[in-house]
Specification:
The chain has 21 helices and eleven strands. It is α/β, with parallel strands linked by helices. This is Glucose-6-phosphate isomerase.
């Protein structure tokens, strides 16, 4: 395995010397470089890749044991080796039969949790489970961060047309008093249901926010049992939840075989289900399950997550491109870039192999993005004209949920135009000819033409959905989950731990002590002077 990346990079010698546009001499390219699965169409014809290279890449992935790794994940082997855990989030969207086959006796608890969640969603949205004063809940506040936040936030904003329960669901993540105040100003304590989501139930931000919201509720409603009635928790740490004051009956458990950033399918999705209803949530899981099936069954060269993983590695390692832009041309998917920053970069932003050896190659790309067309009026200037080549995933829906048909056409046209422009670019000669056609003299045109050159040759994928629904969103998220998993396998790292977030937490605690006790500790003079400055400025 040691030389695996050298072998991959060696495959790219021709790719470096050609432009993507020339590959379209092959009239069948658009057909040959596309995949249709689980309600999603992927066009990857604008990648710098020819058929023989794709075959070589697929063959290379096989020699890396990818087939076996996929089965190891689905069958519950402990592939998260540093934490000695299985990785079974796909099982949460599988039929009961599959759950029982993999989990054995533990399946009963998983199925019971799903049933309890569905029941609660029904009861709360129909007012059978009501407030301490016998009213119907109007609002839900989900408190959580990281994997206990991003998926819910994305689902809530992506599926607005499917909010069928009448409950307004809000999310609170950041440890910022302004964020707390802003949310609480929208809510009435009497009719708000709170869900604290924390796998560990020790996360500083979540705990601080939960305590503040609890205090707010107790000061607004003089009912001692309001917490027992209005509060729910989703966690693996039952002891800590009950110590906090949430009743055992109101805890939805999680399991250590579901990683935070892959947990939307578990009870972590409870607040989302409270917005889109039990059936909407089932459809979300159904879409993801269809993608799981495709991932397990399709041959590598027709397998959407594998093709996206391989072209991603091709771009990152063989061609040396360091970033990945996620550009949904869909307002509802505006939270997707942030969501994928966590799933991708927290999973694969590593430099040590599963065996604990230093890896000799780059891993996760720097993921960023924004909804189109807003991105066109911002950072896409750099994508067109800087030296940096930034591979891009465009995501677009054929239909919106609105009657503005002209808007829809313009949105789609812009999406397709950007992928074309990023690939084609504009040469000096083209720019000069255009300028002269617009009345500039040859001398003027030559002076300006260089400024108008666009480098082109930027690879992209375009993902097309008929419409964004719970089902297609589920498939889209599962697609990215599996792409990230495959890349982790091929980079030979563990995608399922996140030790890199720990040092910041430790130093955060140390700095908090230094701020309160005037300790100088062993912090840098920069940090110490910043502490001093902020303390001075915070004096009212
Ligand atoms: O769900 P929790 O235990 O509160 O964890 C919340 C988040 O914090 C951690 O530090 C990790 O960075 C995330 O992967 C995790 O999702």
């Amino acid at each position: 395995m040691g030389n695996s990346m050298t072998a991959l990079c060696a495959l790219a010698k021709d790719a470096k010397a050609r432009t993507i546009e020339t590959l379209f001499d092959d009239s069948k390219r658009a057909v040959n470089f596309s995949v249709d699965a689980a309600g999603i169409f992927l066009d990857y014809a604008k990648q710098n890749l020819v058929q023989s290279e794709r075959d070589d890449l697929c063959h290379w992935a096989k020699t890396q044991g990818l087939d076996q790794y996929i089965e190891k994940m689905f069958s519950g082997e402990r592939i998260n080796q540093t934490e000695n855990r299985a990785v079974l989030h796909p099982l949460l969207r599988a039929p009961e039969k599959e759950k029982k086959a993999v989990l054995g006796t533990q399946a009963a608890e998983v199925i019971a949790t799903e049933q309890k969640m569905s029941q609660l969603v029904n009861d709360i949205s129909h007012g059978q489970y009501c407030t301490v004063n016998g009213q119907k809940f109007t609002d839900v506040l989900a408190i959580g961060i990281g994997g206990s936040y991003y998926g819910i936030k994305l689902g809530i904003s992506a599926l607005k047309p499917y909010h069928t329960t009448g409950l307004n669901v809000h999310v609170l993540a950041n440890v910022d008093g302004d964020a707390v105040a802003e949310k609480l100003a929208l809510l009435s304590a009497e009719t708000t249901l709170v869900v604290v989501i924390s796998k560990t139930f020790t996360t500083q931000e979540t705990m601080l926010n939960a305590v503040a919201v609890k205090q707010w509720m107790l000061t607004h409603v003089a009912q001692p049992n309001i917490i027992a009635r209005h509060w729910f928790a989703v966690s693996t740490n039952i002891t800590a939840v009950t110590q906090f004051g949430i009743t055992k009956d109101n805890i939805l458990p999680m399991w250590d075989w579901v990683g935070g950033r892959f947990s939307l399918w578990s009870a972590v999705g409870f607040p989302l289900a409270l917005a889109i209803g039990e059936q909407g949530f089932a459809q979300l899981k159904r879409g993801a399950y269809l993608m799981d099936q495709h991932f397990r069954q399709a041959p590598f060269d027709q397998n959407m997550p594998i093709v996206m993983a391989l072209t991603g590695l091709w771009n990152r390692n063989a061609l040396g491109y360091s970033s990945l832009a996620i550009l949904p041309y869909n307002h509802a998917l505006r939270a997707l870039p942030g969501y994928l920053q966590q799933t991708d970069m927290e999973s694969n932003g590593k430099s040590v192999s599963l065996q604990g050896e230093k890896l000799g190659w780059h891993t996760a790309p720097i993921v960023f993005g924004q909804e189109g067309t807003n991105s066109q009026h911002a950072f896409m200037q750099l994508m067109h004209q800087s030296e940096e080549i930034i591979p891009t995933d465009f995501i677009v829906c054929a239909q919106g949920h609105h009657d503005y048909s002209k808007h829809q056409q313009v949105l789609v046209a812009n999406c397709l135009a950007q992928s074309e422009a990023l690939m084609r670019g504009k040469t000096f000669a083209q720019a000069k000819a255009e300028l002269m056609a617009n009345g500039k003299s040859e001398q003027q045109a030559e002076a300006l033409a260089l400024h108008k050159v666009m480098k082109g040759n930027t690879p992209s994928n375009t993902l097309v959905l008929k419409q964004l629904t719970p089902k297609t969103l589920g498939a889209l998220l599962a697609l990215y989950e599996h792409k990230i998993f495959v890349q982790g396998v091929l980079w030979q790292l563990n995608s399922f731990d996140q030790w890199g977030v720990e040092l910041g937490k430790e130093l955060g605690a140390q700095i908090l002590r230094a701020m309160n006790d005037n300790l100088s500790d062993d912090l840098s003079s920069s940090t110490l002077s910043l502490i001093k400055r902020i303390k001075q400025l915070s004096d009212k």
